[in-house]
Design a protein that fits this description.
The protein has helices at about 1-10, 15-40, 55-65, 90-95, 100-130, 195-200, and strands spanning about 10-15, 130, 140, 145, 155-160. By secondary structure, the chain is mainly α. It has a 3-stranded antiparallel sheet with strand order 1-3-2. The chain has a two-stranded antiparallel ribbon with strand order 4-5. Strand 2 and strand 3 (about 140) form a beta hairpin. The protein is globular and about 60 Å long. The mean pLDDT is about 90.
Length: about 200
């Protein structure tokens, strides 16, 4: 069964894939422009035709923690080298200190940027690994499926990882996949199946 799953491949729609990838790249660029405006408002990016770089941990640290320039967030954690941390976990913790509109706006923009970066990485990995199919509109992904290695005994996959493809409104990645022409996909979810088995066995 696993061999048949791997040999069949998973269809991915060319046009949807590249349209969605372009959409997230455009969204990322617009978010970076908005963050540059915030940095300019705090006099951290004053040179003309210069864009503030949100991917620079030093510049991001100056914006978040700087005083009087910057937003003046409290430093909640530091890196091994002693610099104020700007990783995802720290940004989540800073939500509790977003007491001004400027702080809330900046954290929201950084969240949007993180979401776009994540979507672009996933979509780019699909594009890089996709093999064109004879039908033209679709390509095929050939992930490896693993029957061991998860705590819940469910299948996992790699190259690419198709285990947790997002369906959220802000990252609708599952929409780029679809059945081959003339075929159908059925979505069957045994809700809380493991707990139901235990409950039945405990009777």
């Amino acid at each position: 069964v696993v061999y048949d799953m791997e040999s069949a491949g998973v269809p991915i729609h060319h046009k949807r894939l590249h349209t969605t990838l372009r959409t997230f790249k455009k969204k990322k660029a617009l978010t970076e422009v908005s963050l540059s405006h915030v940095a300019r408002q705090h006099r951290l990016c004053t040179a003309p035709n210069t864009r503030w770089n949100p991917n620079s941990t030093q510049q991001l640290s100056q914006l978040l923690y700087g005083k009087p320039r910057g937003l003046g967030f409290p430093i909640l954690s530091r890196t091994a080298g002693g610099a104020p941390s700007v990783n995802a976990g720290t940004l989540d913790l800073l939500q509790n200190h977003a007491v001004t509109p400027a702080r809330r706006k900046t954290l929201a923009l950084l969240g949007e940027l993180r979401n776009s970066d994540s979507a672009i990485r996933y979509l780019q990995s699909y594009s890089d690994l996709a093999v064109p199919s004879p039908c033209g509109k679709f390509s095929l992904l050939y992930p490896s499926f693993w029957i061991v290695g998860t705590a819940t005994t469910r299948f996992s996959s790699s190259n690419p990882n198709l285990q947790n493809v997002s369906t959220q409104d802000d990252q609708p990645l599952r929409a780029v996949f679809g059945p081959r022409p003339g075929t159908f996909w059925y979505d069957i979810d045994y809700d809380s199946l493991e707990l139901r088995i235990f409950a039945h066995a405990a009777k």
